[in-house]
Design goal:
By secondary structure, the chain is mostly helical. The protein has helices at residues 6-27, 32-49, 52-59, 64-71, 86-97, 105-117, 122-130, 134-140. α1 (6-27) packs across α2 (32-49), α2 (32-49) crosses α5 and α3 packs antiparallel against α7 (122-130). The radius of gyration is 15 Å and the shape is globular.
Length: 144
């Protein structure tokens, strides 16, 4: 994909900043750095758990900067990762978040899901959830 102008670069940075701001608000934190680590890790763990075609459909709806984070380190030879339970999913997410401020990983996953849901089509969101095991869906959308 080519970048048409500096304006398009600025727009994608602005959109990514909006997502990080929303995520920080959802998590009740102020650190954009922490929000970035969570969002990046969340997108990558989700990508690795989804079938490749579904991941590509999700990526198509992401702002360009977030699409780059989504595909960072992507290895199509290992799709989808066979993570089926809550604890393994959260452990992978925690590992991908790397160091930084301590975060409740389950709440971070739920908060990132709420942000994602607000920015992609409902049909795509439903497709993503349907491709995940029930235990992981329960982490992403806990009963309120």
């Amino acid at each position: 994909m080519t970048v048409g102008s500096v304006d398009s670069v600025e727009r994608t940075v602005h959109k990514a900043n909006e997502w990080m701001k929303e995520l920080a608000q959802e998590m009740g934190i102020e650190s954009r750095e922490t929000a970035w680590r969570v969002l990046r890790a969340y997108l990558q763990v989700l990508r690795d758990r989804l079938p490749m075609e579904e991941g590509a459909q999700l990526a198509a709806q992401l702002p360009q900067l977030l699409r780059g984070a989504f595909y960072e380190g992507f290895d199509p030879g290992h799709q989808p990762v066979k993570v089926r339970d809550r604890d393994a999913f959260l452990a992978l997410l925690a590992e991908r978040m790397e160091s930084g401020d301590p975060v409740d990983v389950a709440e971070a996953a739920a908060a990132a899901t709420r942000v994602l849901r607000g920015h992609i089509t409902e049909g795509e969101f439903d497709d993503i959830l349907s491709d995940l095991p029930e235990e992981i869906r329960g982490v992403l959308e806990p009963a309120r």
